[in-house]
Amino acid sequence: MPRSVNAVASRRRRKKVLNMAKGYWGSRSKVFTIAKNTVEKGLQYAFRDRKVKKREFRGLWIQRINAAAREHGMSYSQFIGKVAGKNIGLNRKVLADLAMNHPAAFKAIVDAVK
């Protein structure tokens, strides 16, 4: 009985990895074993950094709110404490957007919590 190797599936699997490695430098995009290692590592970074991205954006929002709040004579912690105390249901993303793009609206919120 002849040996069955399922070359179609093997080729498809290798081709998929090499397609994901397009644009990598040198043998990282040409040699399957090296490309496989590089692609796996890249996928690990992608998984990890989807979480890190959320952290970094929250930090950016906090910096923007802090800068805008200080223009109106409040620190970030005072502002957020008073926003929470007045039950204003705006999250940091929305507050940062208001601070950047709609300063009059942000000033109205600051006046409301003072």
Short description:
The chain is an all-alpha fold and 114 residues long. The protein has helices at 7-20, 32-71, 76-85, 92-101, 103-113. It has five helices and no strands.
Explain how this protein is built.
Keywords: Ribonucleoprotein, Ribosomal protein, RNA-binding, rRNA-binding. This protein is an all-alpha fold and 114 residues long. The chain has a single domain, classed as c-terminal domain of poly(a) binding protein (Orthogonal Bundle). The chain has 5 helices and no strands. The protein has helices spanning 7-20, 32-71, 76-85, 92-101, 103-113. α1 runs parallel beside α2. It is rod-shaped and about 85 Å long.
List descriptors.
about 110 residues, mainly alpha, c-terminal domain of poly(a) binding protein, 5 helices, rod-shaped
Describe the secondary-structure layout:
Elements: H1 7-20, H2 32-71, H3 76-85, H4 92-101, H5 103-113
Helix pairs in contact: 1-2, 2-4, 4-5
Function: Binds directly to 23S ribosomal RNA and is necessary for the in vitro assembly process of the 50S ribosomal subunit. It is not involved in the protein synthesizing functions of that subunit.
Keywords: Ribonucleoprotein, Ribosomal protein, RNA-binding, rRNA-binding
Organism: Pedobacter segetis
State the total count of DSSP E strands: 0
Helix/strand/pairing category: mainly alpha
- Give the helix tally: 5
Low-confidence stretches: none
The radius of gyration computed from the alpha-carbon positions, rounded to a whole number of angstroms, is 26 Å
CATH architecture: Orthogonal Bundle
CATH topology: c-terminal domain of poly(a) binding protein
Per the principal axes of the C-alpha atoms, what is the gross shape? rod-shaped
Describe the largest sheet: none
Work out the oligomeric state of the chains in this entry: single chain
Distance between the termini: 85 Å
The total tally of domains equals: 1
